[in-house]
Every structure is written in structure tokens, then in C-alpha cells.
């Protein structure tokens, strides 16, 4: 028994020191070299402070809609709904989001709605939408704001982020930055 207990205690102490001390310092050190020293990307607009790396709620018709959140965009409680695609409650939520989207975007077919506009992300805090999700909303915003659709398309293109290293992930758009650029459009 002694031959098993002492190595287990030693391993526990080593893991405790490494993961609560050394590893934490390594992650903190790497974060110091990132944008804003690991504190996230801060955007100041109209005397308000926003964090571009955390999803924001946009449901007003004159803005691009954000991705739904299972945690009401509360960064303190990130998480998904944990409901599977066959769960009746989940399906009701998705159908309600589809119905709401169709009411606010007449002329759009149900099959044209990208999934990221009706399903929440795993964290509930995803600040991005797909390029398709932005494009499907152009007609509504152009009509409400009196802006040419071509100008909105150009705005989408200029706010599109390419995949990491050119091949990791998909093209995406930071919704907060897109909506701020939309407000700044004259």
C-alpha cells in the first residue's frame, strides 16, 4: 500500500503546483502579448464601453440581429442550453426564432435562414455571425434605414474576418463592429 500512496501524493502535489501556479503564469504571460494585454477588445462608442469579444444583444430591426444566447448574453454565466436537436423544447425555441425572423424579414424563405440566427452557440456569448447571416438581413436594414443594399453589402465585406491562417475556421463578422460601422455610415 505504501508503494501506491506516496507516488499518488507526490503526483497530487506536483499537479497542484503546476496547474495552479506554473500553468496559470504561462497563460497570463502569453495573454500579455495579445491585444489589450488579455483583457479583451474594448470599443468605446457614445460614452459607452463594449467588449467586442463577448456577444451583444441586437434585436432592433434597424440593426443586424445577433446570434441567440442561451444565457441572455451574461458573460458571468456562459453556457449552452444543453438541449439536443431532438428535444421538443429546443425545437419549439428554434421554431419560434424562425417564425420571428420571418415576420421581421418578409420575402425570405425559411430555407435561406442560416442556422446561426436561430440556434445559440455553445457558450451563449458568440460575438460573431456568419457572412450569410449578415447578407440575409440586408433587405430589411436597407429599407428601414434608407440605405442602398450595395452600400450594406460593401459594409459586410469590409467587416468580414478571414479564417485564422487562411484555412482554420470560416469567414465571420463581429456583430458589434458591424453594427457600429452601420451607425457610422452616413
Which terms would index this structure?
single chain; 186 residues; mainly alpha; three-stranded antiparallel β-sheet; two-stranded antiparallel ribbon; globular
Low-confidence stretches: none
Q: What portion of residues is helical?
A: 40-55%
- Cα(first) to Cα(last) distance is 77 Å
- How many structural units, i.e. domains? 2
% residues in beta strands: 5-15%
Q: What about the largest sheet?
A: 3 strands, antiparallel
Please give the count of helices: 6
Radius of gyration: 22 Å
Strand order of the largest sheet: 3-5-4
Shape descriptor reads globular
Count of extended strands: 5
Mean pLDDT across residues: 90
Question: What string, H for helix and E for strand, traces the elements in order?
Answer: HEEHEHHHEEH
- The secondary structure category is mainly alpha
Description:
There is one protein chain. This protein has 186 residues and is mostly helical. It has 2 domains: 1-33; 40-184, no CATH class. It has 6 helices and 5 strands, in the order H-E-E-H-E-H-H-H-E-E-H. The chain has helices at 2-31, 88-104, 131-135, 138-145, 149-158, 175-184; strands at 42-45, 48-51, 128-129, 160-161, 172-174. The chain has a 3-stranded antiparallel sheet. It has a two-stranded antiparallel sheet with strand order 1-2. The protein is globular. The mean pLDDT is 90.
